[in-house]
UniProtKB/TrEMBL annotation:
It is found in: Cell membrane; Nucleus. It holds the Pfam family ARD. This is acireductone dioxygenase (Fe(2+)-requiring). One of its GO terms (molecular function) is acireductone dioxygenase [iron(II)-requiring] activity. It comes from Melanocharis versteri (Fan-tailed berrypecker). Its cofactor is Fe(2+); Ni(2+). The keyword Transmembrane does not apply. It catalyses: 1,2-dihydroxy-5-(methylsulfanyl)pent-1-en-3-one + O2 = 4-methylsulfanyl-2-oxobutanoate + formate + 2 H(+). InterPro entries: ARD (IPR004313), ARD_euk (IPR027496), RmlC-like_jellyroll (IPR014710), RmlC_Cupin_sf (IPR011051). Its EC number is 1.13.11.54.
Length: 140
């Protein structure tokens, strides 16, 4: 995607339309830009899941999303300017900055945003059970 022109990027516009991403904002994760920076960084790195998909589009900077594979092993995904990721509801994950300690990202949602992280263990939520069923179905 064209992160330099995200306001007018037709590809982003089409993704938002097709996926019904009706809400968005922009967050900057840097010690000089994010209130309660140290606390937030620790929260982001705590392994958790959400009950809704988490969609992030990197506009500047870089960082890592760590997710669990079907065998519960970590997979590290490097994200940089122009990258977009959708973490499905119910997947355990965490986020950390790289050595540059800076990322500016667009957060996208279907409908109103819900920010609640549920730290592991959170296996009893329907979103987690649905995600685990998806993994089992994909294995067949």
């Amino acid at each position: 995607l064209d992160a330099d022109n995200y306001e007018t990027d037709p590809c982003l516009k089409e993704i938002r339309r097709a996926e019904n991403y009706s809400w968005m904002d922009i967050v900057t994760i840097h010690k000089d830009k994010l209130p309660n920076y140290e606390e937030k960084i620790k929260t982001f790195y705590e392994e958790h899941l959400h009950l809704d998909d988490e969609i992030r589009y990197i506009l500047e900077g870089s960082g890592y999303f760590d997710v669990r594979d079907k065998d519960d092993k970590w997979i590290r995904i490097f994200m940089e300017k122009g990258d977009m990721i959708t973490l499905p509801a119910g997947i355990y994950h965490r986020f950390t900055l790289d050595e540059n300690n800076y990322v500016k990202a667009m957060r996208l949602f279907v409908g109103e945003p819900v920010w609640t992280p549920y730290n592991r263990p959170a296996d009893n939520f329907p979103a987690r059970k649905q995600y685990m069923k998806f993994l089992a179905d994909e294995a067949h």
